[in-house]
Amino acid sequence: MLTQAPRGTRDVLPADSYRWQYLESKMRLAAAEAGYREVRTPVFEHTELFLRGVGDTTDIVQKEMYTFQDKGDRSITLKPEGTAGAVRCLLEHNLYADALPCKMYYLNAPVFRYEAPQAGRLREHHQFGLECFGAQDASVDAELILLAYNLLRSLGVSNLSVNINSIGCPNCRPKYHAALKAYLADRLDTLCGDCRNRFERNPLRVLDCKVPTCKAAVADAPSMLDYLCDDCRAHFAKLQACLGQTEIPFRIDPRIVRGLDYYTKTVFELITTTKDGSLTVCGGGRYDNLVEQLGGDPLPAVGFGMGLERVLMLLDGEGIEIPRPALYDVFVTYMGDNALKAFSLVQRLRLAGLKADMDHCGRSLKAQFKYAGKTGVRWVATIGDEEAAAGKVKLKNMETREECLVPVAEAAAAVK
Question: CA-to-CA distance for 278 and 63, rounded, in angstroms?
Fold first, then answer.
């Protein structure tokens, strides 16, 4: 156990980290182009934040949170999602007092859920999330959907579709809850134990259940879209109009409710088709009441989350190769007592902006060249006694096998 990672976690090895860095660079660029700035919140928060924010009827709170008592006897939870922490940060630091909207993103943010590990979703996984506070127009909802869609397409993910829905607001949802409960009342005996508990407290959660008998029970359930108030109906129409100005494929799916209680109005999912079936790669929506629910003044908000592991899995499944950067631009080898001169040259090359290294293991010159070849380096610089005496270095192109002798002071320029 000592040398084995806990179930549901995974190491990112040095040989693979470039794939994550490539993905992160694309995500940072997409966020920056839309005016989103990075926020970094703690890995753990007070448990009450998630009980009030995520909702105590959700599977996340009931079954999946990593919660413990700290040495001060406070209940602490490793964050199971990113939005609640972003709202807490907004309130604690009065970010709502700045010019609105406040646009923030988090990247490679670890989230923790105790559930059976599955494809692209581990007990510790990492998310890219965008949160926009202070904008109520549906154009922001559409902006986020487009940002996620265009990002995934630019990475090479194919067969993407966008599913949207509106789950109303506190003004119109009670009427829908009453209609849904009336529909489910005659079907309670077919629901799983969790959904029978949800029936009274939050019947909307039943629509999100993955148990086959529950999915069958709600197949003909009434749609929230038929119960929207005028404000929610207009907002949903504006969202469709904005998306209609683009060429992205979208459809209305009245069964999308998402797995968190804080959503209002817009909810959406980006889905791709794989050989194993459909897979949700990004999901989000509006949470106009969450800031107030956590102690702030009313402030509209919308956001999404995207799992990095899942995106990388999709790229692998489609055979998309992420460019592997060269480990070094130049590798310095040496003979005899010229190790210090080799060391000095490495530092000179690095100061010039080149990725450079040398042998630190006391290998023979032949072994140094063999190691350099394994790294895939293009240039090898060699300092022997003759080169050292002349103040020069021998450069060898490992692809063409051509060699040249240049002054040490000009080595970096020659490699460039």
Answer: 25
Cα(65)–Cα(114) distance, integer angstroms: 6
| Residue 137 or 3, more confident | 137
Q: What is the spatial distance between Cα 189 and Cα 78, in angstroms, rounded to a whole number?
A: 35
Q: How far apart are the first and last CA of the chain?
A: 48
For 164, counting Cβ atoms within 10 Å of its Cβ (0-12 exposed, 13-18 middle, 19+ buried), the class is buried
Q: Determine contact, residues 375/368, Cβ cutoff 8 Å.
A: no
Q: Is residue 266 pLDDT above 70, yes or no?
A: yes
pLDDT at residue 123 in the model: 93
User: Distance between CA atoms of 416 and 408, rounded to whole angstroms?
Assistant: 14
CB distance 345 to 381 below 8 Å? yes
34 and 146 in contact (C-beta within 8 Å)?
no
Cα distance between residue 106 and residue 109, in whole Å:
6
Strand order in the sheet with 403-407: 356-358, 330-334, 379-383, 392-397, 403-407
Quick one: pLDDT at residue 298?
Answer: 95
User: What interhelical angle do 230-244 and 138-155 show, nearest 10?
Assistant: 40
Above 70 in pLDDT, residue 56?
A: no
Domains of the chain: residue spans and CATH: 17-172+228-317 (3.30.930.10), 330-415 (3.40.50.800)
Predicted local distance difference test score (pLDDT) of residue 81? 93
Q: 61 and 50 in contact (C-beta within 8 Å)?
A: yes
Segment 100-124, tens digit of pLDDT: 999 999 998 899 999 888 766 799 9
Q: In which band, very low, low, confident or very high, does the pLDDT at 189 lie, cut at 50, 70 and 90? A: confident
Query: How far lies 364's CA from each of 160, 298, 340, 402, in Å?
Result: 54, 70, 16, 22
Q: Are strands 356-358 and 301-307 parallel, antiparallel or unpaired?
A: unpaired
Model pTM score: 0.90
Answer whether residue 83 shows pLDDT above 90: yes
Which residue, among 390, 385, 383, has the nearest Cα to 359 in the 3D structure? 383
Does residue 22 contact residue 69 with C-beta atoms inside 8 Å?
A: no
